[in-house]
Amino acid sequence: MAEAALREGGDRSVPALGASSHRSDDAVATYGLTKRFGHQVAVDSVELRVPRGAVYGFLGPNGSGKTTTIRMLLGLIMPTAGRHDLLGEPFQEKAGAILPRVGALCEGPAFHPYLSGRANLARLDAADRTADPRTVKRRIDAALERVGLTAAAGKRYRAYSLGMRQRLAIAAALLTPRDLLILDEPTNGLDPQGTREVRALVSGLAAEGATVMLSTHLLSEVEQICTHVGVMHQGKLVTQGSLAQLRARAQRRVRVETERPEAAAETLTALGLAEVTTGPGTAEGLLGELAPEKIVATLVHDDVPVRGFGVVAPDLEDMFVELTGEGFDVSA
Amino acid sequence: MSVREATPYVPKPVSTRFLRSELMLIFGRRRNWAGMAALAAIPIIIAVVMKLWPGGGGGPDFFNQIANNGLFVSLAALTAELPLFLPLAVAAIAGDSVAGEANTGTLRYLLAVPVDRTRLLAVKYLGVVIFAFAAVALVAATGMLIGLLLFGGGDVLLLSGSMVGFGEGVLRVLGVVLYLGVCLSALGAIGVFVSTLTEQPIGATIAIMVLTVLSFILDQIEQLDWLQPYLLTHHWMDYGEFLRDPVDLGALVPGLLVAAAYTGVFLAGAWARFAGKDVSS
Ligand SMILES: Nc1ncnc2c1ncn2[C@@H]1O[C@H](COP(=O)(O)OP(=O)(O)O)[C@@H](O)[C@H]1O
Ligand SMILES: [Mg+2]
């Protein structure tokens, strides 16, 4: 099961370049996507696979390359190497046809400060050649309604609070029906109430069939609303897959309590467990594919006096700390 | 996969929606109203001063003609504003065109809409051109109105000494407006180019003004007479040709060619710079 999950996940090997015959049906697929700023590699050979219909949490600490990746996905900056497909189409050739189906939020909201929220949305809609001018008022009203900005629609943007600004940016992403939403830190700077509202909004959009890729530095956000996760660390995608797959992939440890940890460790090593360690009165090792019962039986057979025995499955937090060497902010 | 419109909208090959939105940004902005009010104030100040303290001479100078015919308020005001106020107005709009959107961060959202980068530059430049013509027209129209009000109209004495009817005089002022509009549009092309180089609109505006003033200075240095015909501003004053009889349109050709050359070169430069640029603002 875990094996199959692994192969299903991000570890598929894919030809990096010039593979025009290879088309993924994923909503987002990147092939060796790389961005260098001078000597710094901000994004390093990233192979994203965001399945259709997923709510994909693009998780990573600040500075890990999430925004840079999203800028490349949207064509704002050019990759140093690699390429990507959106909605099954090669981006380089088809950007103009794909992007109208993609709603985006990138590095926070940005609007003309002296225009009202409504005028700002009208401005963006006017720039969209594919948007129907006959329905613009209805679509703007619906988008404002959806993010709860109807009452403040006539206010100048510069009078908006950070939460209102963030919601206006989401409204802009919802002006026309979208198949894919790429949202860079959509809950950044929101109060708990605003955060809940945005998360509910994202879940609602996903329920309507849109694929959502959202970046975040909050593990709790991923656990609450995401079906899939990709973890960035120092420009590299260190793991990705569905949450279920990742949990299954988590390395379970066995912990033996005994007066003779050295003997227990010998048995564990003999059974083929990796990373066997001993502490005062304990011995530990990675469980791997072994059945825990077999370990207990062998320990008893080897005359190791077992006082206690346990299998510890790490939670996602532990896993990500292990993967990235840093914790994720689990507040909020 | 989400619900699409039942009858999908088929985009028109050419739509003016984005351009209209751009014009609303330019002409709806309070800062720009203030700028346009300043442009329109100059002919009013000139006319009022000439009314209160009528000057002596009766030479060919536009100012001296004002007492005879209000139409000359237009020409006097254009002459007065051409060295600084009009280029500054165009530099402010052109400098803001791309750098302003980069500065507020709206550039990334426009590009993600998506707006094709070539189309974005085209709309931005068209907005600048329309503003340039509107600014010159505003000065001329305000001058004409206040001039007629304070000094009346009547036949127009041309630089070459002959007289033409008032209607033809108005047409000739219109010719001046169009010619200066073209000249300032060339400055606008330089401005849009500079605007693609930075995220600081004020910096872009200052750089454009520095280039303009530099062109005026070089145009004054005798040793550079071989260079002067190619300077951006060298032919701007050629609009006086519209006040000769008959108008020799051929005399305007060098100015139009220089304007076209600057426009072509700098728009190409703007495109080369912007088409593949990383937008990380
Ligand atoms: N335009 C740029 N020029 C130079 N370095 C940049 C630029 N944009 C991002 N970086 C660097 O790339 C790294 C990744 O940044 P970013 O993608 O913004 O991370 P995240 O969104 O995950 O916080 C950071 O070290 C950042 O300093
Ligand atoms: Mg970021």
**Number of discrete domains of chain A:** 2
**SSE pattern of chain B:** HHHHHHHEEHHH
What is the end-to-end distance of chain B? 32 Å
Largest sheet of chain B, order of strands side by side?
A: 1-2
Radius of gyration of chain B: 21 Å
Distance between the termini of chain A: 33 Å
Give the rounded overall mean pLDDT of chain B. Answer: 93
Q: Give the overall shape of chain A, derived from the CA principal axes.
A: elongated
Q: How much is the average pLDDT of chain A? A: 88
DSSP summary: helix tally of chain A: 12
| Domain module tally of chain B | 1
Can you name the CATH architecture of the largest domain in chain A?
A: 3-Layer(aba) Sandwich
Helical proportion of chain B, percent range: 55-70%
CATH superfamily of the largest domain in chain A: P-loop containing nucleotide triphosphate hydrolases
User: What fold name stands as the CATH topology of the largest domain in chain A?
Assistant: Rossmann fold
Largest sheet of chain A: 6 strands, mixed
Give the uncertain stretches of chain A in residue-range form. Answer: 1-21
Oligomer: heterodimer
Largest interface: A-B, 45 and 31 residues
Low-confidence stretches of chain B: 1-5
Question: Topology as H/E string of chain A?
Answer: HEEEEHEEHEHHHEHEHEEHEHEEHEH
Structure explained in plain terms:
The complex is a heterodimer of chains A (332) and B (281). Chain A has 332 residues and is of the alpha/beta class. Chain A folds into 2 domains: 2-247, Rossmann fold (3-Layer(aba) Sandwich); 251-312, Alpha-Beta Plaits (2-Layer Sandwich). Chain A is 35% helix and 25% strand. Chain A contains 12 helices and 15 strands. Chain A has helices at 2-8, 66-73, 91-98, 117-127, 136-146, 162-173, 192-207, 219-225, 243-249, 261-270, 292-301, 316-324; strands at 28-37, 40-46, 49-50, 55-59, 81-86, 89-90, 102-105, 180-184, 211-216, 228-233, 236-242, 253-258, 274-279, 282-286, 306-312. With 281 residues, chain B is an all-alpha fold. Chain B has one domain. Chain B is built from 10 helices and 2 strands. Chain B has a two-stranded antiparallel ribbon. In chain B, helix 7 packs antiparallel against helix 8. Residues 1-5 of chain B have low confidence and may be disordered. The chains are: A alpha/beta (332), B mainly alpha (281). Chains A and B meet through helix 4 of A and helix 1 and helix 6 of B.
